[in-house]
Amino acid sequence: MRIMERATGMEEGKAGLRAGNDVPVERPAQRSGARPVSRRREGEMAEVAAKARRRAFLADRMARLGIWSLSALALSVVALVLGVILWNGLGTALSPSFLFGKPEAMREGGGIWPMVVSSFYLAALTLLMVIPLGVGAAVYMSEYAGEGRLTRLVRFGADSLSAVPSVVFGIFGMVVFVIYLDLGYSLLAGALTLTLLNLPTVMRSAEEAIRSVPVSLREAALALGCTRWETVKKAVLPVAMPGITTGAILCVGRIVGESAAVIYTVGLFVRKVPWSPLRPAAPMAANIWHMYTEGALVPDWFRVASGEAAFLLLLVLILNLAARSVAAAVRKRMGYRV
Amino acid sequence: MSSIDREWLIRRILLVAAMVVVVGLAMVVYFVAKESLPAFREAGPANLFSATWSPRDGRYGMLVFLVGTLTTAAGGLLLGTPLALSLALFLTQVAPRRSRALFARGVEILAGIPSIVLGWLGFTVLVPWIRKLSGSSGSGILAASIILAVMVMPTITAISKDALEAVPASYAQASLAVGATRWQTIWRVLLPAARPGILAAVILGMGRAVGETMAVAMVIGPASVFPTSLTTPTHTLTTKILMEMGESTGVQRSSLFAMGLVLLLLAMALVLLVRRVSRGREAYKVVE
């Protein structure tokens, strides 16, 4: 087998080693075309083998050191990022006057409450559209679709859509939803754009959840006389629901952190808490960008942006934790792989 | 409605849901292309792909930004791939078994950090640090590459980890059985076997780096000129679109859409490339 040949040249070395120790050894029968080899030659082979083995162990140790140190570097980057952001902004982020206060345009001490509401409002609107579409598409792909050209087209579409840069989604949304459909800068335009942006990921996680439902469950339902849709509705989806929920929670994290696609569809800055989805709003991520570019109008823009960044990070961490604990709790209860 | 009719209807509805991604992609391509037509008509491809961007003089060349995109992406990959690969090897081979889940969780958290938060970190910490070290403005390709490396690392790690775990255990077992050391097994057996998957991971990481907007925008300068060093400001395609779309009209706006079209085509080309590379993923399956 090729793999055995690629390992070190240990076979011959071992034979030579035995010879070097002056133990009588039979000529190894598997050495093809074996000529009788002198004792001196066998000693040399033993030396070469020993050197190769030492070199291999040295390389192994160095590689292990390299992997450990590079990985330590990588993991400390994670810790550094989290630490610095939270250190710089957590004090602001967790103070009630900041979180629930109104933003100030010309003075210090403003808060970000409208931004927080905007972010969640946007997430809710987007989820309302992306979950049914995504789960429906996932159900079709895993239960109804064959392996034909249509399936491949849908997969190509999903993969491509997930590779498109978010700023291109932003300008697309601006042209189609804000201008063409005349929705103006609004939460609705943003939600429609973000639906398209997040659809591939929701499809993927929903499909994974659906596919992990045991076949026996489906077969049982069919055996009891369910139609295909009844099987899906009553047997498959309830079991896949925790996985879909995990995907939805992670999706919220992505929506809340999305900035480029939001700037050109939802707006950048508002003073009041948004009520109507047809009016502009200022989700936190877009607001950080606003502070960065035009924050000079607000004297303490640095503090506001740092606080917002810390709050966003905290939010994403909590969502991540929530998603995992949902998955873990259900896994424990049901014993299925979610 | 009889249940047969209902089944028929539901199947069609679900098909429509599945086709939304395809229709959506088509719409994105169509509208971006449509909005960029004026630029192609009035400025022409030679102008659009030239190296001068000066709307006042009617020059709309995007070459500066294309170079910016490619160099920052290359820098990010150069810095991020070794880290990501060794992290993947660490998680699958070297780390003590019980701590693997913990470290994997750490990488997952990094993947979820919003890009604007990372950009803010770059702006508040990285750029001043580079400025202190080099005496220049601090923003530019170096800062962008470092930030991109951080963003790209989780993607490459996760997919490489999957690729490494997909290699049948018998390969490593056979290698160890004939006396190879751990590193020899990794270097001569595991990595070559996982090569298609790792290549796919790097390409996907490149896609992420090319498309990244906010994080790069906060550390890149910006300036619409070719950078003279790693620490002078410049622009990438994404940051240029981001920062000028709001105030552009006419041919300038249209040429920004042309840049968007270039990005779109790049993204789809990357997807096709990943598919071609991943086809080799089946190449090392051994019939036991």
Question: What's the alpha carbon Rg of chain A, rounded to whole Å?
Answer: 31 Å
Low-confidence stretches of chain B: 283-288
Largest sheet of chain B: 2 strands, antiparallel
Biggest contact: A-B, 95 and 93 residues
> Which class do the helix and strand fractions of chain B yield?
mainly alpha
Question: What would a concise description of this structure say?
Answer:
Chain A is mainly α and 338 residues long. Chain A contains 13 helices and no strands.
3D architecture notes:
The complex is a heterodimer of chains A (338) and B (288). Chain A is mainly α. Chain A has two domains: 77 residues; 239 residues, MetI-like (MetI-like fold). Chain A is built from 13 helices and no strands. The N terminus of chain A is likely disordered. With 288 residues, chain B is mainly α. Chain B folds into two domains: 46 residues; 222 residues, Orthogonal Bundle (MetI-like fold), CATH 1.10.3720. Chain B contains twelve helices and two strands. In chain B, strand 1 and strand 2 form a beta hairpin. Chain B is globular. The termini of chain B are far apart. Classes of the chains: A mainly alpha (338), B mainly alpha (288). Chains A and B meet through helix 1, helix 3, helix 5, helix 6 and helix 7 of A and helix 1, helix 3, helix 4, helix 5 and helix 6 of B.
Q: Which keywords apply here?
A:
heterodimer, A: 338 residues, mainly alpha, MetI-like fold, extended, disordered N terminus, B: 288 residues, 2 domains, two-stranded antiparallel ribbon, 12 helices, 2 strands, 75% helix
Please render the helix and strand layout as text.
The complex is a heterodimer of chains A (338) and B (288).
Chain A (H helix, E strand, L loop, with lengths): L1 H5 L3 H11 L18 H55 L2 H4 L13 H32 L4 H15 L2 H15 L6 H25 L3 H9 L4 H30 L2 H4 L20 H11 L6 H34 L4
Helix pairs in contact in A: 2-3, 3-13, 5-8, 5-10, 6-8, 7-8, 8-10, 9-10, 10-13, 12-13
Chain B lengths: L2 H40 L1 H5 L4 E2 L4 E2 L2 H32 L5 H13 L2 H20 L6 H26 L2 H9 L4 H12 L1 H17 L2 H4 L19 H8 L5 H29 L10
Antiparallel strand pairs in B: 1-2
